């Protein structure tokens, strides 16, 4: 009996090999995405946990202007504090060999030799600086690789106004900079921003910080309450210019990495579920129609004594065999895709070791998920077979009775050609099957749109930020606020056409029981180089009598236009006052507030001062300006617009484009599988009708036109449904990309819509050609041998 069952199953699988292959490919796509995304998430998460633990990543951080090291004792006395690391951290400009533009390096002091520190430096090549030398440093691996530097090389940095030629003794990385970005950056630019470590004593001397520190990292006990530690720490550091302590969850690198892990985990469960749902749907369609075609066989089996369960299981086994083929293709494909994704993440998440980890649990889970999806689709068809009695099954299925449709009653069909009339009447008689076909193709089109959604969103951010907000060529950030007269000196520099100052003020904003630590950016009210612009609302003027809040910040504080917020300044005299919310802008980067920079001086109770300047530069003289900026001691960071755009484009090419192409390729497979299956099943179901039409005098072209026209019409009808479905799926993803650093809007480009439609149209065209070839070989006598 088992042998007979296997023989029947293998025969049916071979006879329907084209349809089975299409369904198996859909299953394989779902398994591949499930294995790849979950594997990549696990690889990143486990690497993060191991790295943080191994290098003793801090739990609480704080920055101050300058504080004495004598504070170590009261800080250690805070309940829950296990260890304290007091450091010196400064951003400096650097001249890197071979680089046209100045680079920014974050210089961090190392603990004394032999002391196991918090945020431990992991040296991949070379050695730590010699304590007897004051010109040796360890450079971050990412910056060194991007600039072609290695152990023994040199960089020239401006340390406290003096140019110093520093020797690279080692290349390393730290858990603080898994995602290595500098001030004002969202995407990493490893060519122009890096991290550098130097001995603590050498940095004390270089920056006149003997006996002091400006950066603090704290490791807590397991049972400690981080928020209580932060509150007590703020009280201790208040008089030393503390900008507010914060927990690990708000640390820039960790926040980016955690957000990325959350996104991967959602996608790892969300997208494969759609693929497997389509696979189950496809199997249900295939097997339910197979039951219809095999009514006579089902009746004979039951008449010869086969039980209802045995007959039903045969169709379940058919679905499981299809899944097995998908598993054999999908698991290796998923493991390969996981390696590809981990390789992409390795380019901008820096770990000592980040490798694709093969988890048997993930593979087993993917197989079980696909088996469940297939079982649901197969079981539905099996139930149809089980309900057929031998007498009923051995009778041909009764033809559908004619019922005039709306088109018939309206007289619209009478004016149409007969082939088109037959197509529309057949669809009207079988609305359920037509709806299933449209739904399957629409799901595949929607998945293609989802695949490109992230790329469209980031391009929208770039178009807004660099098309309507940032018009400057160069942004300078000073190492500390400078008098307003500095802009006149900048205007005299080579190639500078226009200068606009800005002021950045760190603040706490409070409203009711909500609070947020952020920055107020003071802009020139009549400025042209840097504007305030919203995604949908256009340009917003700088308010002279209040604050302009980003929509994200306004939502976090629960305020709207006209309401008032309490502003606590975190520098200078640390003034507190109440200000009106003058406007809210739906920008896409950050959660910040804006005001007139002249008002910011009054807010601080100081003479007009600026934190930096925006420059418009003559392109022909840009190189002369960059050379001057490399040696300018008051500048801690130089951001060049064209370099930032190029860096972001490279990041997109490495990540979003590859992932979008993979998802688009998988969705194309689904479209091709669904469309081809629809064509083949329609040919099997209607072979008798089509042969009868040939006998009645219809030409081969007319018969082909009826079948192909019906399926092409279903494909065309599915396209707008697929676009709407894809839009809805993307809308569900938007909250997942709502980060503080950036927010991806719901925007789909024409290119995305075109690339979503083309696979469906192309698959339909190819399937139509294949079916037309089969129609030419149609054996009229064999097809018409049907029992009456």
UniProtKB/TrEMBL annotation:
Organism: Cupriavidus pinatubonensis
Signal peptide interval: none
Membrane spanning stretches: 20-41, 267-287, 315-337, 358-386, 436-455, 656-676, 712-734, 754-771
Membrane topology listed for this record: Multi-pass membrane protein
Full protein name: ABC3 transporter permease C-terminal domain-containing protein
Keyword field contains Chloroplast: no
InterPro entries hit by this protein: ABC3_permease_C, Lipoprotein-release_system
Domain of life: Bacteria
Pfam family, one: FtsX
UniProt entry keywords in alphabetical sequence: Cell membrane, Membrane, Transmembrane, Transmembrane helix
Domain ABC3 transporter permease C-terminal, chain residue ranges per copy: 271-390, 662-778
Record family assignment: Belongs to the ABC-4 integral membrane protein family. LolC/E subfamily.
Subcellular location: Cell membrane
PANTHER family linked to this entry: LIPOPROTEIN-RELEASING SYSTEM TRANSMEMBRANE PROTEIN LOLE
């Amino acid at each position: 009996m088992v042998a007979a069952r296997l023989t029947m199953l293998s025969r049916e699988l071979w006879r329907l090999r084209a349809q089975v292959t299409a369904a198996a490919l859909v299953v394989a796509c779902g398994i591949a995405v499930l294995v790849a995304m979950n594997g990549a998430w696990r690889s990143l998460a486990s690497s993060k946990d191991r790295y943080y633990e191994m290098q003793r990543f801090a739990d609480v951080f704080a920055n101050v202007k300058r504080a004495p090291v004598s504070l170590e004792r009261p800080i250690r006395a805070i309940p829950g504090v296990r260890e304290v690391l007091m450091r010196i951290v400064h951003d400096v400009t650097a001249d890197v060999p071979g680089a046209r533009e100045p680079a920014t390096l974050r210089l961090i002091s190392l603990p004394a030799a032999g002391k196991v520190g918090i945020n431990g430096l992991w040296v991949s090549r070379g050695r730590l600086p010699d304590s007897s030398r004051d010109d040796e440093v360890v450079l971050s691996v990412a910056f060194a690789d991007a600039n072609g530097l290695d152990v023994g090389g040199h960089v020239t940095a401006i340390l406290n106004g003096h140019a110093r030629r520093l020797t690279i003794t080692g290349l390393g990385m730290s858990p603080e900079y898994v995602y290595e970005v500098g001030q004002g950056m969202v995407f990493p630019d490893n060519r122009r921003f890096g991290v550098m470590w130097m001995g603590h004593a050498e940095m004390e001397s270089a920056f006149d910080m003997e006996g002091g520190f400006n950066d603090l990292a704290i490791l807590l006990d397991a049972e400690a309450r981080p928020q209580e530690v932060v509150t007590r720490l703020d009280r201790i550091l208040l008089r030393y210019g503390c900008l507010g302590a914060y927990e690990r969850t708000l640390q820039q690198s960790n926040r980016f990495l955690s957000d990325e892990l959350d996104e991967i985990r959602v996608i790892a469960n969300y997208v494969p579920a759609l693929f497997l749902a389509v696979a189950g749907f496809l199997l249900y369609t295939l097997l339910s129609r197979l039951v219809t075609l095999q009514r006579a066989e089902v009746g004979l089996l039951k008449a010869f004594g086969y039980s209802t369960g045995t007959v039903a299981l045969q169709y379940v086994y058919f679905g499981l065999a299809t899944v097995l083929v998908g598993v054999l293709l999908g698991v290796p494909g998923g493991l390969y895709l996981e390696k590809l994704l981990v390789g992409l993440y390795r380019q901008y998440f820096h770990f000592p070791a980040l490798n694709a980890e093969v988890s048997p649990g993930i593979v087993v889970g993917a197989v079980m998920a696909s088996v469940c999806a297939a079982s649901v689709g197969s079981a539905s068809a099996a139930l149809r077979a089980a309900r057929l009695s031998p007498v009923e099954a051995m009778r041909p299925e009764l033809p559908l009775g004619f019922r005039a449709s709306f088109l018939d009653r309206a007289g619209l069909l009478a004016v149409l050609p007969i082939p088109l009339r037959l197509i529309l009447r057949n669809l009207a008689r079988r609305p359920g099957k037509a709806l299933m076909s449209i739904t399957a193709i629409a799901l595949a089109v929607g998945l293609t749109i989802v695949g490109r959604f992230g790329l469209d969103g980031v391009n929208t951010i770039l178009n807004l930020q660099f098309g309507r907000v940032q018009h400057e060529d160069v942004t300078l950030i000073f190492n500390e606020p400078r008098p307003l007269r500095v802009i006149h000196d900048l205007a005299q520099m080579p190639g500078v056409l226009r200068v606009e100052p800005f002021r950045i003020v760190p603040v706490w904003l409070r409203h009711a029981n909500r609070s947020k630590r952020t920055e107020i950016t003071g802009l020139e009210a009549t400025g042209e180089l840097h504007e305030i612009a919203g995604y949908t609302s256009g340009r917003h003027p700088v308010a002279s009598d209040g604050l302009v809040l980003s929509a994200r910040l306004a939502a976090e504080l629960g305020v709207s236009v006209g309401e008032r917020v309490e502003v606590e300044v975190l520098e200078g005299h640390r003034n507190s006052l109440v200000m009106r919310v003058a406007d809210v802008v739906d920008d896409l980067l950050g959660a910040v507030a804006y005001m007139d920079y002249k008002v910011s001086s009054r807010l601080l109770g100081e003479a007009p001062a600026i934190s930096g300047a925006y420059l418009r530069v003559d392109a022909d003289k840009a190189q002369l300006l960059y050379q001057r900026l490399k040696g300018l001691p008051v500048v801690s960071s130089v951001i060049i617009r064209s370099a930032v755009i190029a860096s972001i484009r490279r990041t997109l090419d490495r990540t979003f484009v590859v992932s979008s192409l993979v998802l688009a390729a998988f969705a194309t497979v689904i479209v091709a599988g669904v469309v081809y299956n629809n064509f083949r099943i329609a040919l099997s179901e209607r072979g008798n009708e089509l042969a009868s039409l040939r006998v009645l005098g219809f030409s081969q072209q007319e018969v082909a036109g009826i079948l192909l026209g019906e399926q092409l019409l279903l494909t065309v009808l599915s396209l707008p449904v697929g676009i709407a479905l894809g839009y809805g799926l993307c809308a569900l993803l938007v909250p997942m990309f709502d980060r503080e650093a950036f927010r991806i809007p719901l925007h789909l480009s024409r290119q995305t819509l075109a690339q979503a439609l083309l696979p469906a149209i192309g698959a339909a065209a190819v399937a139509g050609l294949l079916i037309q070839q089969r129609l030419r070989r149609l054996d009229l006598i064999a097809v018409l041998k049907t029992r009456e």
